[in-house]
Structure prediction request, 792 residues.
Amino acid sequence: CTFLALGTHFGKVFLLDIQGNVTQKFEISSVKINQISLDESGEHVGICSEDGKVRSRRSSPLATDPWVVALHPQFTRSNYKQFVTGGNKLLLYEKNWLNRWKTSLLHEGEGTITNIQWRANLIAWANNVGVKIYDISTKQRITNVLRDNVSLRPDMYPCSLCWKDNTTLIVGWGTSIKICVVKERNPTEMRDLPSRYVEIVSAFDTEFFISGLAPLADQLVTLYFVKENSEQMDEEFRARPRLDIIQPLPESCEEISSDALTVRNFQDNECRDYRLEHSEGESLFYIISPKDIVVAKERDQDDHIDWLLEKKKYEEALMAAEISFKNIKRHDVQKIGMAYINHLVEKGDYDSAARKCQKVLGKNMELWENEVYRFKTIGQLKAISQYLPRGDLRLRPAIYEMILHEFLKTDYEGFAMLIRQWPGELYNNLAIVQAVSDHLKRDPTNSTLLTTLAELYTYDQRYDKALEIYLKLRHKDVYQLIHKHNLFSSIEDKIVLLMDFDKEKAVDMLLDNEDKISTDRVVEELADRPELLHVYLHKLFKRDHHKGQKYHERQIGLYAEYDRPNLLPFLRDSTHCPLEKVGLVLSRFFKRPEFWKLSRMGNCRRALQMIMEELGDVDKAIEFAKEQDDAELWEDLISYSIDKPPFITGLLNNIGTHVDPILLIHRIKEGMEIPNLRDSLVKILQDYNLQILLREGCKKILVADSLSLLQKMHRTQMRGVRVDEENICESCHATILPSDMAKPFNVVVFHCRHMFHKECLPSPGTLHGVQFCNICSAKRRGPGSGILEMKK
Prediction:
């Protein structure tokens, strides 16, 4: 639409541009203008006035005695010089080949025609009775849509007509709206009927009187004349007109939006005083009242964002801009985001503002640095520190250092967290190390600063200094640091510290890396800490009895001092300790060490006798007998103990799993008083009962496993065996199947999958009617004893 044609009550027509500026003015008549019609190109304007004349913008009067007018949509073209007028009659004017106007009567006799709308080949008009549609191509009237509320005066509540497209007509009259679709009639149903018919696809009533209609996609724009009841007086009064968007349904409608319009003198206006016109393709709507013209347009995303910003709904505005960034024209996503950040800062919600910086500032380094300095100015560097870029986009090192210095002044824990989170490339590592060192001078035992300094040293590859701090703090990451950076050369003089921190981990690490730290070096470092040396040498001996053989003599004293329960196993397993030296060492710790030597020399009976006679230690004697696991030794122990009640008690309590207790009980003299005999016998019975239960349990498991394996073997042996031309006889090595399958043949297939021709199988391989695979029988008797015989 390039202009707006406006007729007045004083017979003048003004042409206005879309901003409302008057471009042309025409003195058409001295009475009011009733209707103006434009063709599609806008070249011709048909004007109908109250004095009964129709004029074109380019010529003199075209017709007389009309009330309304409608030009053919393509009036400008020479082939379409047509227009219709309405008064009491509907007249069609056409130019003939002599360039003269020819008049045709289309309709009359139903009162005054108040509205005409022409689209393509269809002319719709409204009179006192209803709405008619005329097909100019077939020269047939195809429908008559009756008026619903006949009590309303047609001149006060005129009909509103609007074509949505070439076949859809929207009719609004009073409070009723109907949507009519022109359709082609089936040729078989025509007879004397028009070739087209009209179907009403939607019909519903509205709350207010309709002054105008216009299509908006699949919705409708409606202009309502509103009357409301006064609260003070029992009478109606005229309210502001309403412009609504509604969604038509088959029998009702859904209100999408509603706006009350403020126009001058709306209190004095009637329904007929308002008009709604629209410009197709531009979503522009013109609301005309006696004193005002209001231009309405469909709100776009920019309008929506304007409204959200006005209401300070910045988050929703930002979200809307991001979703529709391709369609917005007046707004910029980043600027909206900056406005949101400013709003959050003004509210004091610094953490949310900082979080939004990640999304809004993106990769704009200049904006990032400006925001950082702003947060510094307001004392909120901590808030933005968690959200600074640290990936592909990186700010200047000075920015990160400024934040680290701020944390170092006020929050050691936060400083340590940033050091762990930020890559070391973001800042000058040496400068931060120096700053931490300066703080440690004032607080040398602060574990948080020491740990952070160790992490800085690690990043700077000064591992020895980091290791020293970790050991001082007994930090759990010390072993990981050693392994990760191969710092074994740096820990040779720190082995005692490592052992003090965690003996088990330290020893395992040293033994796993003997090629980097030798056993001799470890022993040398632990010489002044014999308890730690024993732990190391004990684990070394457990791994390999021969690796630390030159320290075995030394270990005897260490075991005797720190781990006596493991001394005897050590002496038993070690073959690198001379007996005289063993006795010499043991003599420093035990009163009678001779039995160790006797045991080592293999004289176990004499060693047992010494334990029992000289030491009188029945528990040690039983333990010694258990270690040797010798039946004669147990017999000697029973014989020696049979007249000593305390020894008998000890034996009854301990030999149940090694010797049958009945042998001991039968040899006890009748009448001998044995301490705690009842408890000992109860224990023997309980042990025996436990053994029975274990045996029964094992038996059940064995039976179940045997049955399962038997079933599995049975299923396996029941399976078929594939025999084809690739298989050979294990005896003659010829193909197992004959070339002529029509001849009879016999094949023997064993479960071991060896195959023979029946005639090739040696006869000695049979036993009680069972044949054996000769190949498997040569290895072991039994496998392949089952047989499959295939005959044909």
About this structure: Residues 602-675 form one domain.
